[in-house]
Amino acid sequence: MHFTSERRLDDGVVAREFTLGEIPGTLWTPEYAAPVPLVLMAHNNGMARTEPRLVARARHTAAAGYAVASIDAAGCGDRPRSAADERVRADLRRAMRAGEPVDEIFESLVGPLVENAAPEWRTALDALLALPGIGGPVGYSGWMALGIRLAVDEPRVAAAGFFAGGFVPRAQREEARRVSVPLLVLLQWDDEGNPRQRALDLFDAFGSKEKTMHANMGGHTGTPWFEVRDGDRFFGRHLK
Q1: Following CA atoms 70, 119, 207, 39 in sequence, which dihedral angle do they give, to the nearest 10 degrees?
Q2: Extents of the domains making up the chain
Q3: Per-residue pLDDT tens for 86-134?
Q4: CATH number of 2-80+119-239
Q5: Which residues contact 61 (CB under 8 A, 6 or more apart)?
Q6: Residue 176 DSSP symbol
Q7: Torsion of CA 69, 74, 80, 86, to 10 degrees
Q8: Could you tell me how far CA 25 lies from the centroid of its own chain?
Q9: Can you give the pTM of this predicted structure?
Q10: Is the CA virtual torsion 93, 148, 210, 202 positive or negative?
Q11: What percent of the chain is helix, strand and coil (3-state, nearest 5)?
């Protein structure tokens, strides 16, 4: 892991950019040096770790006493995308605007994204836990499809917070029954891009004995800010 920059922010958080081979990432930590738990914070498929809402969440969580890391996995952020990937994305946008069925298009886009992203997140986790001042256990926050895969395959993930989405690849819908870590799932009741009933069915399928859903009115990007504070309390119960 190679750190390329360091900034001390006005909320008592240190933000450091890093590269890990071809993987770019950001690590936010509290200024004090005591070992702190780690939260992996993943953006939704294809987005960048510099997205303002993710950065705001990461800074708030780091200020609450966690190390927070996010990477741009393969096909996300500014990392190269194939011409075929771009065509699928264009097809998905067109179909959604036209109100056409999107399941197969979505599957062909997001399924490979999860398969390619999960190994890079595990590589980043190895490197992050080797840093001084970062200890376990590990939490996960963000993109549901990737989070399901990591919660099933990565034993170091002890708790997870998901942003509910009805469009989750078939493989992850099957894997949901094998998820056993404590869950906090955030659902936007009027999410224009995700079918509500599918999200509710997926929540029901999770195998975790402790799972909580917070449902709020509003569209896809309308998650209330108080849910960030509730998320910190959730991780406080399971990581500290």
Answers
A1: -20
A2: 2-80+119-239
A3: 898 899 889 888 888 888 988 888 898 899 899 999 999 999 999 999 9
A4: 3.40.50.1820
A5: 28, 39, 41, 68, 141, 228, 231, 232, 235
A6: G
A7: -120
A8: 13
A9: 0.93
A10: positive
A11: 40, 25, 30
Q: Which two tokens stand for residue 21?
A: 């081979």
User: Which residue, among 184, 191, 187, has the nearest Cα to 230 in the 3D structure?
Assistant: 184
Element (H, E) at 175: helix 170-175
59: which 2 tokens? 């800074």
What is the rounded distance in angstroms from the CA atom of residue 110 to the CA atom of residue 167?
9
Instruction: Write out pLDDT tens, residues 217-230.
Output: 998 888 999 999 99
Residue type, 215: A
Q: What is the mean pLDDT of the chain?
A: 91
Reduce the secondary structure of 11-67 to three states and give it as a string: CCEEEEEEEECCEEEEEEEECCCCCEEEEEEECCCCCCCCCHHHHHHHHHHHHCCCE
